[in-house]
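Thread: "does anyone have the structure for this chain?"

Original post by V.I.:
We have the sequence but no experimental structure in hand. Need at least a predicted one for the grant figures.
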Amino acid sequence: MAKRVHTHLLIDDPVSAISEAKKGLYAYPDSKPLKLALVKALCASGNEIEALEEWNELTIQDRTLLENRTALETLAWGVLNKGESSNQLSIRVNALIGASMTRDAKALPLILNAMRGSNSMLRSISIGLAASYGDFPLQDEIERLLKEEHVWYVRLELIRAIGALRMIGTKDLLLEIIGNPRTMAEEKVAAIISLVGLYDSIGDKELASLVRSNRAGLRELACQIISHLDLREKVDLLVPLLKDAHPGVRVSALSTLALLNVHEIEGKPLFNNPRVYRLIDDPISEVAITASWLALLKGDKRGEKNLKNWVLKGEGRYARLAAGALAISGDAGVKLSKWLMRKSRDPYIQMTLAIGLIGQRESVDTACQILAKHLSQNEKWMWDTSLNPLFRSLSPSRVPLSGQIPNYPEVINQVTRLEVLQILCIMKYEGAQEAVKEFLSTHTWGVVGTAASTLLQEGDDEALDFVRGLLNDPEEKIRLQAALILAQLGNDVQAVEVLKKSYPRVHRDIKIHILQAIAKVGDPEAISFLLDRLNEPFQVLRVVAATAIIQCLYH
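Reply from O.Q.:
Generated one for you, tokens below.
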């Protein structure tokens, strides 16, 4: 009878399989193979609650089934497949992510279905997951979507996925995006980055056509390709772009000259050539700042003078851009950076210059003190690279709200601050560990995880012991946060017991994080705890617990 049930399942007829199993159990009520077949059939049909009820009765009679890997996996996938068809977005998202985390081929149909679905957020998430798998059916779907998708943030994910998977066949589609004057700036930048990564070489004719294109985006792409492929012999092609009508092209041409360390063009030293030195006084600020930065690198005093004036007297955004240029100027910018770090009253300029000096291992103590002092300010931060991608400068946040990520500006603010905190950890600044503990006690999980992971990855054994010691902290929130951190790093089984004890007393959102953390550890001893979670009243918790079971089985 059990074979008849499995035959129906083989032809994808779970309804008949359930009917056969129940008929068989009527005749043979104690048959364990039939009971297991019924559980499998119920999972295949999406009746996860009934399947769990049958499973619970079965395990009461035979506790050895709790060690049956095939049965446990069947049960977990039944929960995931049911979650994928839920009407609630949060459940579908968790089921999709959970299935992909198993790294099992069974996840591919779920990812494909989400990519073809009507919900733009699910399409966006599934595209990112598809990029991590890279199977050909997923690549074909990415290419199809790039031709048809209209939602901008989904298109961004598509373009990034193409770059990550090096999908050479999409080159013409990316060129069309870059050359279209209606393309959003974010899309164009993403397309240029992805397309440049597809080039291992380029013919003279193709490069020349990009340089002469009537589309500014393609002329920018030409500069990026020359830089990416280190085509020093093609530098003369940049000369006409130095007087291009589009400021973005002029910035890209100047940046390429700097990255290739070009000393002369047209037989003249760089800043004896009027095509270059006139750009120091370009009416477009980002062009003038980029040209001044190039002059500084080449030892031309006009560059130092102009950058100094921009930092001290320029409008806020451009003053910070000039500070970002100085921060990546190496030895050439150290002296001026030290002076401006003391002279400027703008905290963002001070911190940007401090980060640059730390990179050069100059005035490290003073620079760390400046970073630590400003970490306590309440204004939201971001990294600004909008005017020149080479010049990263700390800036007041202009990040808009996002439909994809709740409270997105605050997320970016915290990630930016954590990067500054990471620098203090790397430099073993005295107050760095205390700053991490402050994050543990004042911020929610997610941000905290990044903070402490930073300390553990960049610190020494004392930092590791510091976080492990917090597992015994008298405050439960600190214990829980420390356990989540150590578990998420995937190498500390001690944390699992703390997580299991905290689970009944926390909010549902934190319960999700606890289950995800246990999954990351992959401790087989936690499977019985996770099986109990399959009886939770909230489907989202059942979905995450099912994911964790599969990961613990195959860790």
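V.I.: this helps a lot. Residues 432-521 form a domain with the Leucine-rich Repeat Variant fold (CATH 1.25.10).
O.Q.: and The first strand starts at residue 264 and ends at 265.
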